[in-house]
Design a protein that fits this description.
alpha/beta, 15 strands, Rossmann fold, 10 helices, 7-stranded parallel sheet, Dihydrodipicolinate Reductase, domain 2, 333 residues
Length: 333
């Protein structure tokens, strides 16, 4: 590997594009190739896609063509949330000898719900001598690694509660729609069952906390419910009438010896709530840490991914979770 980390971008959507821009600003990293299936992006200069000067990197339709004239150390993968939908992409990247840092929420702790796929990816990565890692802001930081970092000052921890309240009215259109805002209760329920309305990765975050604290989980329960409007609300993207959903209230609970020792609570709503992130640990000493205004999801996800690259490259081959890597550190300027 050269002194500069050579990055292949696999997926140039909103988050993938933000990541590419951040990598371009980092003096210790170099973008060398990009892959995206969108016909409107194929052949385009990566920099010019973002209104920047030309970078001399052109978007390829597939991995083979992307690597014809480029050598990469690691692929940043940003195409999907669910492992069954992206496992073929991940395996192709591993077969090409690339380390991977992915925003796929399932990949943050795939042993929980996809144990067979986890074993398959782990075995393939080890055979190729590369590391594969799933991360982001959540899962990947706010509701798991941040919690575990705070627990480091506790002699013991008896209960974990995490709250994340997000003002979705300020977020990009796809995320506003993902909250279920503007749907009737019946439409909301139907879309939660398909996975169109919910935040992926919450059960994985519970499992990561439990594993980090040495708790053996009995089970994880998850619920997603609409927050019903009592008055009209509108954003630049959508309108909500009384009786319709303002957004979602999602909870995940981890049970240990029959008791709910881990509680994760998420609200994403468009009626402009005061956003915050809060971690409450019942322990010795007790801890109550609140991030006023909350953590911006897209910007933080971009940062966590890029700040994790060096650690992924330094890790042992195989499937690595946040428990296997050091805390990602920011870049001082």
């Amino acid at each position: 590997m050269t002194d500069s980390i050579r990055v292949l971008h696999y997926g140039i959507g909103h988050v993938g594009g933000e990541i590419a821009r951040l990598v371009h600003r980092r003096p210790d990293m170099t973008s060398v190739a990009a892959v995206d299936a969108d016909p409107s992006k194929i052949g385009a200069d990566l920099g010019m896609l973002f209104g920047d000067d030309a970078w001399g990197i052109f978007v390829s339709p597939d991995l083979k063509s992307a690597l014809q004239d480029a050598e990469a150390d690691i692929a940043i993968h940003t195409t999907g949330s669910f492992l069954p939908q992206v496992v073929d992409q991940l395996e192709e990247l591993i077969e090409a000898g690339l380390n991977i840092c992915s925003t796929c929420e399932d990949l943050s702790y795939p042993a929980l719900k996809r144990p067979e796929l986890a074993r398959r990816l782990d075995g393939l990565a080890k055979s190729k001598g590369v590391t594969i890692h799933g991360t982001g802001v959540n899962p990947g930081f706010i509701m798991d690694k941040f919690v575990l970092a705070i627990s480091g000052v506790c002699q013991e921890v008896r209960h974990v509660r995490v709250e994340r309240i997000v003002d979705a009215s300020k977020r990009r259109p796809p995320l506003q729609l993902k909250t279920g805002a503007g749907l009737s209760p019946e439409e909301f329920l139907a879309q939660t069952e398909t996975g169109a309305v919910r935040h992926a990765g919450y059960q994985e975050a519970v499992a990561l906390i439990a594993a980090g604290l040495g708790w053996k989980l009995d089970r994880v329960e998850e619920t997603v419910k609409p927050i019903i409007a009592t008055e009209p609300v509108s954003t630049d993207v959508l309108s909500v009438e009384p009786g319709q959903s303002l957004g979602l209230h999602q909870e995940a609970r981890g049970f240990v010896a029959g008791r709910p020792l881990i509680e994760l609570i998420l609200e994403m709503r468009v009626d402009r709530p005061e956003g915050y992130d809060r971690v409450v640990l019942d322990g010795i000493p007790p801890m109550d840490v609140k991030v006023i205004g909350g953590t911006h999801g897209d910007r933080a996800t971009t940062a966590v991914v890029v700040n994790s690259l060096a650690s992924v490259l330094a890790a042992k081959p195989g499937l690595a979770t946040i428990l296997d890597l050091p805390l990602a550190l920011g870049w001082g300027v």
